[in-house]
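Hi everyone,

Forwarding the result from last night's run.
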Amino acid sequence: MSYCSKAYNEPSKPTVVTSSIPGPESKKQIDQLNENFDARPVYFICDYEKSQGNYLADVDGNVLLDVYAQIASIALGYNNPDLIKAAQSPEMIRSLIERPALGNFPGKDFNAILKKILNIAPKGQSKVWSALSGADANEQAFKAAFVYYRAKERGGFDVKHSDEELTSVMANQAPGAPNLAVLSFKKAFHGRLFASGSVTRSKPVHKLDFPAFEWPQAEYPYYKYPLAENEEYNKKEDERCLAIVEQLIKEWPSTKGAKVAALIIEPVQSEGGDNHASAYFLQALRDLTLKHNVVYIVDEVQTGLGATGTLWCHEQANITPPPDLVTFSKKCQSAGYFFHDEKFIPALPYSIFNTWCGNPSSMIIAGAIGEVIQRENLLEQVNRVGDYLMSKLQKVAEKYPQHLGRLRGKATFIAFDLENAENRNKLLALMKQNGCNVGGCADASVRLRPTLTFEEKHADLFIEALEKSLASL
């Protein structure tokens, strides 16, 4: 018996009882919520007590197969018994009630909690710094990269800051506040704070009206599919984008007055349209960052913890040497960055610091998720089910070539494109009405983000709903 069948009392199929979603009760509660909270983006009001495994219930009695999983952030499913057990542990009670300021007053159990996080660390990474969210993880990683970069410029990690640095930084001036930049890629999404917003390039709404750093953006490869039939074209696309990256690193200091201290990339640009980077591209970036003394940051916030078939997507590229920093959140339920070089620990102990320095409650859940993934061999299942789902989707694409294009993915981390945004949005609404909660990205893409416990029977139900929805377009 599979883990999903053992862990959950799932229904055999979705149930839709309202003529539209959101239904009348959801609409009523959305209006009430809107009096106290900006509820305009809300799709429907969920009933989490009645949600089970891969099925998400709403307050109208609809029960949808969830192939979006809280924007890719639910690893195992709803009401997971292993996570409920972890949530009821004495460690969890202490972390919730005491809410320790970890940088100053960690509990006696904190190191054991951290070690469980490190059990799921990417290959080559041995240390972790915790954060509060994916955006915060990236902001903290930028700080670590800048401190590291400046220490190298200063001539050593034990060299003290000058009086000029200490004085000028209080006026937001160089050299204490150096003019450094992070290079990112067009269509990237790295968060909605200020530095993370400056490297986000996916949609105007993510950063409109906010001040931003003038930082460079390179081209992210846009491949033709199927990959096996377009190797020559895609290799040229990699080379084109790599040339742009190197040119920006070389020219940004002279044109904009800022040295490129770090480069950040998603192995798959999720919010930006599920654009994939090849293993060659990711390794070539590593070579360039070493050549030009640039810190290499891999953003695994959405791709991390198993959905692409390995715990961390970039591991499939076997990047050598490993990236300097790897950021995480979403499916981990916790957040932060992994690293391996002790020199990324700032010389001054309060350089990267805040009151809570992350959240031990979330870390406890992350550790429990990792234990389930390893105990139940869920990576094998994700790869098996991903192959099964992809073979089914290929047949659907052949049947509806006018609607479904650029089918791509790794394991169950899958996407395809509709011919335009209007039909994509219609399809997402039809899928809900046919019992499946699915998400979009970019202008006309649909992204599948099921849990790691998603099985062949769930894939069959998804395909059934997809064909029915495509036939209605």
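The chain has 15 helices and 16 strands.

Cheers,
N.
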